[in-house]
Amino acid sequence: QTHTSDNKKLFLATMKTALALSSMATALFSGTSSALATTTTPNLELKYFGARGAAEPARILLALADAKYTDTRFEIEPGTMKAPDFLVAKESGELVMNLDRAPVLLVDGTSLGQSKAIERYLAKQLGFMGQSDLEYAQIDCIVEHCRDVKDAQRRKGFSAFHRDKTDEEKATARREWFDTDLPAWLEKIEKAVQLTSGKDGYAFGMENSYVDVAIFSLLKDCGDTDMEDTLKAA
Ligand SMILES: N[C@@H](CCC(=O)N[C@@H](CS)C(=O)NCC(=O)O)C(=O)O
């Protein structure tokens, strides 16, 4: 079961929204990955829940490269949040490399855990990590900035998962985040990207890179409740 074209269609549709910073990511699917043409992609299987979550950037990288892979999804039962196939996979030892969690990527049968390690591996394999060790590090650097922003948002603690705050405290934290904190982060990232972008629409150099995927994930792959405010902050 491959979801490459569905993923691509979803992206093309959602990327139509105009954004300042994420105009970098608008061209995400218009280019091709140069390295892919010369690289033989191994047999890949990505195992994750039937949700975007921690696997989506990896799926995006695979879709961008038109790479074939098996997209195994542990479906979550509506209402109960239970995923019986996940429990089966966990019991059978399939998820040991991510400490009994998902995602796990199988590369010709070899198991790899940790979503960020999976993303880096795929980005490198599929030609989205630049042309040299230094470019790799520059790309990695900006991707880590995007991770810092996500971590900072989590620390702000206004999502439904945070039960230690009152609704009023959450509303205040939320307002601060979207009115002040997030715009300040994005302004800084935009300055960094101005140093690495080689062409309008690309955050690094002149073609799609892992940075475009990270920026897209940051701005366009957040939950529905945060989407409008995130886009406004951008
Ligand atoms: N740092 C790990 C975190 C993995 C993780 O926490 N996965 C969650 C889903 S996003 C999970 O499998 N939760 C189910 C469980 O722990 O039982 C990664 O990025 O891969």
TrEMBL record:
One of its GO terms (molecular function) is glutathione transferase activity. Residues 132-234 form the GST C-terminal domain. GO terms for biological process: glutathione metabolic process. Pfam families: GST_C_3, GST_N. Residues 42-130 form the GST N-terminal domain. PANTHER family: GLUTATHIONE S-TRANSFERASE (PTHR11571). This is Glutathione transferase. It comes from Entomoneis paludosa. The lineage of its organism: Eukaryota, Sar, Stramenopiles, Ochrophyta, Bacillariophyta.
